[in-house]
Request: fold
Amino acid sequence: MDEFASIRHWTADRQGENWQQRRGVVRGIGDDTAVVDAALAEDGVASPKRLLLAVDTMVETVHFKQSTMRDEDVGYKALAANISDIAAMGGMPLHALVSVSVPPAYTPERMRRLYDGLYECAERYGVAIVGGDTTSSPGQLVVAVTVTGTVEAGRELLRSGAKPGDAVFVTGAVGKSAAGLHALLAQEREQRAGERLSPAEFSGTGEELLVLAHQRPNPSVRAGRLLQECGSCRSLNDVSDGLASEAWEIAEASKLRLVLNEALLPRSGSLAAYAAKVGIDPLEWMLYGGEDYVLLGTMDSQDADGMRAVFHEEGLPFFIIGETEEGEPGVVLASGSQSQGDKRGPSTHSCRRIELKKRGYNHF
Reply:
């Protein structure tokens, strides 16, 4: 099967022309470039709009292994990681370009499964696949995805907007993806070396939700839009490389300190149970694991409780986990028992404070 036959095999009859037109696509797959008119996209973003651009690459053995990710999971996650970057700006994802470097081990049917996962994610989040590139690879599979999105002009959410006295929040539990990867690697070593493992393989063990969080993450698009619309969110980042790493990025961009209250960090029951089972401090995964794709940010502290109520009305999690303060850029973990009846926990000034290192996933 040549390059063009392969592309047709992977992409044909996936997204209808009328549907793509509603995403602002003038010309999709089939010409030298795609043609889009973002102003025509039915994305819920008010004009005037700004275009958001994000790119992410997944490399076999660096970002995934055949034993921990099925082919369709690789496709799904490659797009989801990019969509999360758009969500972190408060934007709406629109289009994607997909480039793959395919080694001999990946047959046409395996690549078809990869595109099954990619298009499943695209359908879920309303992303039009409009083009890409295909090459051979001598060894590992490489999947590179570029995503476009839109946001109201001048209202994109940046890392650099935090102010002293802001509330620090996160839109979901952290550490689950890292724990899921640990479970996958442990099962591979002990029982099923070389086989691809799915969440179903862990049914009844309590770890299936952790594995699902690693293989099929959910970018926080709706959460990003709610934060963009509220007008009091001052900084935002997605948790791709770990909570501590993303907090450091906000601290450095905004030139202040983030103080995270350990008692308020959300941890799932499945994470706590698995950590106890394997004898690992769950904080290690929560602070440094990454690939959770929830949002971390800061906002006017007076509006934080109201924002939590808005999220809960939509069935979305929202946790206030600390505050910002003046000082040399950095991230602090304050530990202490939570005060009775105080949803915010104890004052971080009266707790034991530990400086968190700028550590998380690092490609180099």
